[in-house]
Amino acid sequence: MPLHQPIEANDLNPVIITSPQTRCGTTLIQRLLCSSDNGIAFGEQLCVDLQVLHDLFINRHSFFYPCREDHRNQLAEVCRGNTDFWMPNLMPDIDGYLNALVNTYKEVMVPFQNHARQLNRPVWGAKVPTWPAERLEFLLTLLPQARVIYIYRNVFDCAKSAKSRKFIGSEDSIHAYAATWAQNVAQVSALIGSHNILAIEYERLLAEPVLTVETISAVTGATNIDPKILGSSGNTWTGQESNGHAPDGYIAPSDLTARERRIISQAAGAVMAELYPEITQESA
Question: CA 89, 93, 95 angle in degrees (round to 5)?
């Protein structure tokens, strides 16, 4: 599918921090970038906007682009004075319209980049968990200078944390959670090597903090990242535990039942066997 790139060159260079599922460590990477001398990683709302705009473009492209010649002919008929036909979808130039959508996708990032530069933090980005491969490929195709930090974590530990946050509870939600993790890992793995994606294993980040932080610094250009951030314990909002929050901002992971581990293994076992062959549903 062709992307209708506007003629204007731009220098947008965000660092998008994402993961195959929630509770993988995107906030930890965000904190690391924010601890640097010249970096800042904004929260999730920019990526929410980008998600909406991406989906809008895909919808409008699939609706208009295949029949753009028909729309062009309809407009030409009207301009020749013929209005005696059904024309509820009369449109201007389709390429120009789609280019405007792409420009809007880019334009929403401009205030983030501009403000980061005003703060003397030119290495900037935003974080959001659970972005699928198609959204990452769209972003990286449009913005050659963009980079992605993709942090993944073994799905059993993700699920324990998600359970304590009340993100999952029913058996169906647990299966869907693990299946999404597996699908996103597999699809994003296929992009690595041909796109600006740095994959980071959460467990290795904690085991080899200095080396991993050096890699993040080399890829992003962030300087003097503080590895002590990795000792930070905050992982939720302050509030009531019944809502998945905690009085001190830290909520401990919940245990998984044997049946819950079995459900997760059924949904994500093949991918887990590739990434974490030492972890089984019995040992998780």
Answer: 110
Terminal CA-to-CA distance of the chain, rounded, Å?
42
Closest CA to 21 of 161, 123, 196: 161
State yes or no: pLDDT of 9 exceeds 70.
Answer: no
Angle at 169 between CA 175 and CA 273, to 5 degrees: 35
Set out the domains of the chain in order of their start, with CATH numbers. 15-275 (3.40.50)
- Helix/strand/coil for 243: helix
Amino acid at 280: T
Q: Report the distance separating Cα 17 and Cα 47, nearest Å.
A: 10
Tell me the per-residue pLDDT of 110-143, one tens digit each, with 9 for 90 and over.
999 999 999 999 999 999 999 999 999 999 999 9
* Structure tokens given for 166: 């009340």
- Asked if residue 200 lies in contact with residue 29, where contact means CB atoms within 8 angstroms, the answer is yes
The position carrying tokens 């905690």 is: 246
| Helix residue ranges per DSSP H, 165-201 | 171-189
Buried/exposed 152-172: b ≥16 CB within 10 Å, e otherwise: bbbbbbbbbbbbbbebbeeee
pTM: 0.90
Under 8 Å between Cβ of 16 and 49: no
Distance between CA atoms of 139 and 128, rounded to whole angstroms?
14
The span from the CA of 189 to the CA of 39, in Å, is 26
Distance from C-alpha of 136 to C-alpha of 138, rounded to nearest angstrom: 5
**pLDDT tens, position by position, 156-203:** 999 999 999 999 999 999 999 999 999 999 999 999 987 899 999 999
Q: E strands within 193-255?
A: 197-201
Query: Strand pairing partners for 151?
Result: 200
